[in-house]
Amino acid sequence: MTAKMYGILWIGDKAEIKVIDAIEETKTKAELLADFLNPKGITID
Amino acid sequence: MARGNVDFIEATRPMRWEPSSSQSPFWWTSNFDVNPGITFNSAVFYTIPVGWRMCVLGISIGCDVTAIQQFSFIRTAGIAFQIHFDTECDVHFGYGAMEMAAGDTMRVSATNNALGVANFRYNIHGYLVRAI
């Protein structure tokens, strides 16, 4: 997913519409928990 | 002025302000959607221009769902403020003491702890002051 942020910047009496990209979207909580429990990514066959 | 099938009104707002003055009002209003359980980190949306400094007067944030959401306002140096809130209404902050120098950047981060997609909205207002 490429999230975008939409904004209006007013400076003085001029307006500018901006579309800002997300630089990253972090992992979900489940993925973060999995990384915490298994930081080296070891898999057991 | 017409563009396509949408009529645009000249983007000016009535205010008692002279463009040649040493201060310039600043207002940034924005919104974005965040998927559940995801942290949205925006790119830099404004950099204080050379020759100016900025006084941030206030920030308001809001969300369209009720959950304990997290919102951060981040400068170049790091997180300037962070809040956890649970309301569908807007939350307002006074920030009269925060000053940003030329070259300082602004970006935001938000975590959606709701079960569905949440729409965050926020405003930052202040004024740019010409550096002497």
What features would you highlight for this structure?
heterodimer; A: two-stranded antiparallel sheet; 1 helix; B: 132 residues; five-stranded antiparallel β-sheet; 11 strands
| Major beta sheet, strand line-up of chain A | 1-2
* Number of DSSP strand runs of chain B: 11
From the N-terminal CA to the C-terminal CA of chain A, the straight-line distance is 32 Å
Low-confidence segments of chain A, given as residue ranges, are none
Helix content of chain A: 10-25%
Distance between the termini of chain B: 39 Å
Helix content of chain B: under 10%
Strand composition percent of chain A? 35-45%
Q: How many strands of chain A?
A: 2
Task: Explain what this protein looks like in three dimensions.
Chain A has 45 residues and is of the alpha+beta class. Chain A has one helix and two strands; from the N terminus they run E-E-H. Chain A has a two-stranded antiparallel ribbon with strand order 1-2. The model of chain A has no long low-confidence stretch (mean pLDDT 74). In chain B, the strands form three sheets. In chain B, strands 4, 5, 7, 8 and 10 form a five-stranded antiparallel sheet that branches.
Task: Break the fold down into its secondary structure elements and pairings.
The complex is a heterodimer of chains A (45) and B (132).
Chain A: E1 4-11, E2 14-25, H1 29-37
Antiparallel strand pairs in A: 1-2
Chain B: E1 2-3, E2 6-7, E3 23-34, E4 39-42, E5 46-47, E6 52-63, E7 69-74, E8 79-85, E9 91-100, E10 105-111, E11 118-130
Antiparallel strand pairs in B: 1-2, 3-11, 4-10, 5-10, 6-9, 6-11, 7-8, 7-10
